[in-house]
Amino acid sequence: MRHQHIVFHDLLKRVPWSVLDEAVERYEPGLDPRTIKAKPHLIALLFAQMFGSRSLRDIETGLQSHAGKLYHLGGTTVSKTALATANATRSADVFAGVLTALMAQLQRGYRHKIGECVRLIDSTSVKLSGLSGDWATFSAKLCGAKAHIIYDPEADQPLYLMVTPAKVNDITAAKAMPIEPGATYVFDLGYYDYGWWAKLDAAGCRIVTRLKVNTPFAVAQARPVSAGLGILSDHIGYLPTRLAARRSNPMADLVREIQVKSGTGKVLRIVTNDLTASAQEIADLYKRRWAIELFFRWVKQTLKIGHFFGTSENAVRTQIVVALIAFMLLRLAHAASTIVKSPLAFARLIRTSLMDRRSIPDLLNPPAPPDLDQQHSFEFAPAATRAAYRRRAIRACLAMRVVA
Question: Using CA atoms, how far apart are residues 76 and 23, in angstroms rounded to an integer?
Fold first, then answer.
């Protein structure tokens, strides 16, 4: 019988393994040789993400139950002790290089002019146990970490990730992020820093964000607004010229304030350095922030970043990085497939059929009967063969129900 790869193999073939090898040479020159190798380590953690494993014991048991299928993946069974050691000692940067390569791979399919690039910046917090208190203490009774993201709403993908303790301010992380000259950056009040805004403005970037309720604004020109669009006012003017400690405001050039009434009746003061675009275009750009909120919700509901397998900073960073690698693999596989339109339904379908010997395009097709000797029909096949076929048929039906 011809060998048939499993669904998990179809996902993993998108991983740039050469990038992983280069990262190993760079970051692991002195790593204990008894530590599990990087490739089976990554495969084990991706297995945990796809299956929704909740503990190291779950991962160990799951890998053992599919031991016969791991050889063709380049993986192996791993004990929970070995996995815990690898999570704590292998630098998360080893897997971060793979994530960066996957981001670039998906981004290549969305080439557009730099002036049309929209970048959403935000962060999401995850709660950690008290065992992470040596590095992630946020308050007396709370420990946590933050994932800071630059997100491309056109490609529906993250472009940059930084993981910090929860006590690190969003603006502190943003100042370390790369800047794309000429791109449009949309962010909320967590990034309220005139010096950083001035840095974006100097790079030719368009800024769309909010003003605080009590921020004074000196109006230099009032622009007409159309009735019935939710735009209350459109003014060009200046931000405060002086800041605390008698410092001058680095964001001293003309800016624009657009007041918008949200669906809940709240008035938002949107500010931008774009003096020419329509007020509705600026308001629509700010509304696009919702895309990154949906991304955070999708990742938290579908992947495993709500329950962590380790307590050290490196283990937490590694799990978040691998969760985003899993997201990118699902996005790439979904983009290459037409079996379902919904990314969430596709992820559920993959989870249901992950270790089946089928290709992703065939997941919703009824499974073919097993190859038998020409002298025997299926009815006279061994009981184990018939039972295996029935199990595959049941899984296929369940997968169809999940998608429906």
Answer: 21
Q: How many CB atoms lie within 10 A of CB 222?
A: 11
Separation of CA 313 from chain center: 19
What are the structure tokens assigned to 24, written together?
């190993």
In 3D, which of 404, 333, 400, 402 has the Cα closest to residue 365? Answer: 400
Give the DSSP H/E element, type plus range, for residue 142.
strand 142-152
The pLDDT assigned to 372 comes to: 47
% of the chain beyond a pLDDT of 70? 87
Looking at residue 370, its pLDDT comes to 54
Give the Cα separation of 350 and 51 in Å (integer): 9
Report the pLDDT averaged over residues 262-291. 93
Report which secondary-structure segment, H or E, holds 269.
strand 267-272
Residue listed under structure tokens 């139950």: 65
Residue 242 is predicted with a pLDDT of: 80
CA 287 to chain centre: 20
pTM: 0.87
Nearest partner of 263 among 297, 229, 226, 215, judged by Cα: 229
Cα of first residue to Cα of last residue in the chain, in angstroms, is: 33
**Inter-residue long-range contacts of 137-144, CB under 8 Å, 24+ positions, other chains counted:** 137/165, 137/167, 138/165, 138/166, 138/167, 142/166
